[in-house]
Design brief:
three-stranded mixed beta sheet; binds zinc ion; 376 residues
């Protein structure tokens, strides 16, 4: 059970931006891992605080959290985590926001200028048939990967990055200004603390190169439109040996000519002639399992009548269950009548009784009563 975000930050539900920020700042300072080395509890608490603040400082996320609680961020897709949670990028960003100057660039110093690679997004469109059967898709992603020549260090093989002389490796320089001393990012090494004297010829010192990679992605049967699949570590390579980002596959389903989908159920509108509806009949519908199913309709079938074909819908994701296929009848009124047809229908009209169309007969007589009641 996750703790309530407001309780985590020790603020009321109505807390404004300023209160949130100051509560976060205070707690984050208290539980910062640098101040509590080796304390797993403090580290956990620190992460919780970050996640709570990240959510509540964003008006949209906050509104979603107020309405749905933690569930608002848990159904985003498969593979867990995702954008909403306290995951990778977002948290680091707010951390930098608040602590960037305050902590004196400590993060950069510790990591020696390593940067996490960016997350990548790949849009994939699949057909309903593919969503039905599931598939393994091969995708080609142009992405930067760690340079194999220098193993991501950026330095020419056989050489090492050297400590920056300007900042002695701290990545920060101090300048006195009156009574104050101001710290800023080292202009020589741009905060990395190290300088590459002989850059790797393959990657020009970046530690990564661009390549097109081929990946196989497993699309499970029954997948929904709008699903996001995360491939951890398959995003852009980090800078100078930093960790790779993630690759997100955004799936969308192409509209189908015959079937509309609602969860695991499918709907298919079938137009039939007026005479078939009146006399009864049958037709075949193709289903996604590659078979045909015969649908019998009784005489006197009304428009919009639904027939259910059990188990002929979509597979339910990761479950051995199937949805249903609903056949929706749409009666087509005859058009472009020739003389003979018109005569036959007029003859039909003459010999018809109220029993043939009880609904319309009943409707107009009730309407008449209603009208007479009004004018009394
Ligand atoms: Zn290289
Ligand atoms: Zn420097």
């Amino acid at each position: 059970m996750k703790a309530d975000y407001y309780e985590t930050l020790g603020v009321g539900k109505g807390a404004d931006e300023k209160e949130l920020k100051s509560a976060f700042r205070k707690l984050a300072m208290q539980f910062h891992p640098d101040k509590n080395p080796g304390d797993a509890n403090a580290e956990h608490k620190f992460k919780e605080i970050g996640e709570a603040y990240e959510t509540l400082k964003d008006p949209q996320k906050r509104a979603a959290y107020d309405r749905f609680g933690h569930a608002a961020f848990e159904n985003g897709g498969m593979g867990g985590g995702g954008f909403g949670g306290g995951g990778s990028g977002g948290f680091a960003d707010i951390f930098e926001d608040i602590f960037g100057e305050m902590m004196g660039g400590g993060r950069q110093r510790r990591s020696g200028g390593r940067e996490r690679g960016a997350d990548l997004r790949y849009n994939m469109e699949i057909t309903l048939e593919e969503a039905y059967a599931g598939k393994t898709a091969q995708i080609h992603v142009p992405t930067s990967i760690t340079c194999d020549e220098c193993s991501g260090s950026g330095a020419k093989p056989g050489t090492q990055p050297v400590t920056c002389g300007t900042c002695s490796g701290s990545g920060r320089v101090r300048a006195a200004q009156g009574f104050f001393s101001i710290e800023r990012t080292c202009p020589t090494c741009h905060g990395r603390g190290q300088i590459i004297k002989d850059p790797c010829p393959k990657c020009s010192g970046q530690g990564r190169i661009t390549e097109e990679r081929s990946l196989s992605v497993n699309i499970p049967a029954g997948i929904e439109d709008g699903t996001r699949i995360r491939l951890t570590g398959e995003g852009e390579a980090g800078l100078r040996g930093g960790p790779s980002g993630d690759l997100y596959i955004f799936l969308s389903l192409k509209p189908h000519e015959f079937f509309q989908r609602d969860g695991a159920d499918l709907y298919c509108k079938v137009p039939i002639s007026m005479t078939t509806a009146a006399l009864g009949g049958q037709f075949e519908v193709a289903t996604l399992d590659g078979t045909q199913t015969r649908v019998k309709i009784p005489d006197g079938t009304q428009n919009a009548k639904q027939f259910r074909l059990k188990g002929k819908g979509m597979p339910v994701l990761r479950q051995p269950a199937m949805g249903d296929l609903y056949i929706q009848i749409a009666i087509e009124t005859p058009q472009n009548l020739n003389k003979k047809q018109r005569e036959l229908l007029e003859e039909f009209e003459r010999v018809s009784s109220q029993d043939n169309s009880p609904q319309s007969t009943g409707f107009f007589s009730r309407m008449k009563d209603f009208f007479e009641g009004l004018s009394e």
